[in-house]
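ESCALATION

Customer reports they have been waiting on this structure for their group meeting. Please prioritize. Original submission:
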Amino acid sequence: MKYLRDFKKESVLAPLFKLLEAFFELLVPLVMANIIDIGIADRDMGYVTRMGLCLLALAIVGLVSSITAQFFAAKAAVGFSARLRQALFDHIQGLDFTNIDRAGTSTMITRMTSDINQVQSGVNMVLRLFLRSPIIVFGAMIMAFTIDVKSALIFVVAIPLLAIVVFGIMMWTMPLYKKVQSGLDKVLGVTRENLTGVRVIRAFHKEEEEEKKFGEYTTALADSQTFAGKISAVMNPVTYVIVNGAIIALIYTGAVQVNIGNLSQGEVIAIINYMSQILVELVKLASLIITITKALASADRVAGVFEIQNEEREGRQEASSAQMAGKAAQDRGSDLPVPFLEFEHVSLTYAGAGAETLQDMHFTVDRGETVGIIGGTGSGKSSLVNLIPGFYPVTEGAIRLKGQDIRSIPEDTLRSCIGVVPQKAVLFKGTIRSNLQWGKPDATEEEMWQAIDTAQAREVVEGKEGKLDARIAQNGKNLSGGQRQRLTIARALVRKPEILILDDSASALDYATDAKLREALRALEGTTTTFIVSQRASTIRHADKIIVLDDGEMAGIGTHEELLAGCEVYQEIYYSQYPDERKAE
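Update from on-call: job pushed to the front of the queue and completed.
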């Protein structure tokens, strides 16, 4: 509801104008009764004409009121959904990787698009009809009582029956519509997977299997929608039966009352008109209930995303930081300098994982050092470097930057001094310039070209029409894998980070370009501390320090020569890539 705060005026005016319309509509049967009882009975055509003009005036005022109400309701609903969607997007952007992984991309997309659209429709319909329909229903009943109490008692029986039907079906269908939206999640997920992996699907000639899989999901979605729709569709005929049954009773009762002289013909017509108004409004109310049911189901799903919160660690951080700092001072001695970056017996277990991904990582890194990280597939290399920017919280131990626990450093401060080049090169739709400005929004052309040269991407940029203003397609689809990797490295270098993390980000480069890149990065020493994750021993062999991982544990740490002399895991990796050197020995 807080996202409607900026639309208080519209949220009040829309129902008020609808109530005004309803008020004029309730007067119509009374005017009709007067036309019949006075104008037609007395053959007074002047009176009939005046009352006819009165009906026309009521219609015009009602139309203007209705259009005004529609305008304010639409303005409030659209503005509300825009703010809600922005708030949801901002919230998702603030979630840590653990929560994003748990929620799932397709679910987030569905809730930000389809679900919010459903909520928007619900708000619109509520502002337009939620007050109008009940006012018409109960107003018509009250007006009927002013005409004839005995006839109006039929309303007292019919309206509760109608309420039971309407709200009973609403309570039944609400969980069904939640199921429908969940089915939409699955359809969106398989669609997204197919569109992003279309080349792989065609390469393995799996089109028919994927079509069958998509058909199963869409059929399941259609079945759930049909089942929910069938139940909702019961509402109209049942309400029609109840209302028309009430009209039959009214006609019979009215005829008896007219026969004994208690009612006039016009008053009977007025009462029947009021019952007809109730019928029309209940049809609208039935449609409104279905829309509200969908909107509430979707709102519940949207609220579910807002309820996902990152773990609050502030209190524990402060204590942990103080404890760790004290322990570190004791371990090193008070006169020893504090390392630039320190992993203090760090372990990591992903949410829902059965075992630790990293165990007891303990090492220090000085400013300006180049650290190579190598190990087999699944050994935890990416997990290790993802801990430095705080993408995932450590489950044991602490990581300290300049002596301070990174958990106590504000997120924006921590990440502003780190440049990350992820394993999968990701570029955004726009230009080369706009992508490089992700690293530093106010970067000059000189800074951009300097980063491009370091990343060995000058030939890529100069080979494009427009150079820095060359267009980049979504996900960089108009570039090769190596070109994307070099531009993502340049993007990280533009901000001149204190810590540069290259997570296997040169895997698509040829050996010559890789060598030039390593040489250029070594020239950054003294200002930038570099972490290089790689499967290639050649990429990290000249690093100041090499960390060897094996199944989440540190198998060794040292220089290339030290590890080659005393680390079996490193020897196995290195000699598998350079078998000739083993033979030479």
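Sent to customer with the following note: The two ends are 74 Å apart (CA to CA).
Escalation resolved.
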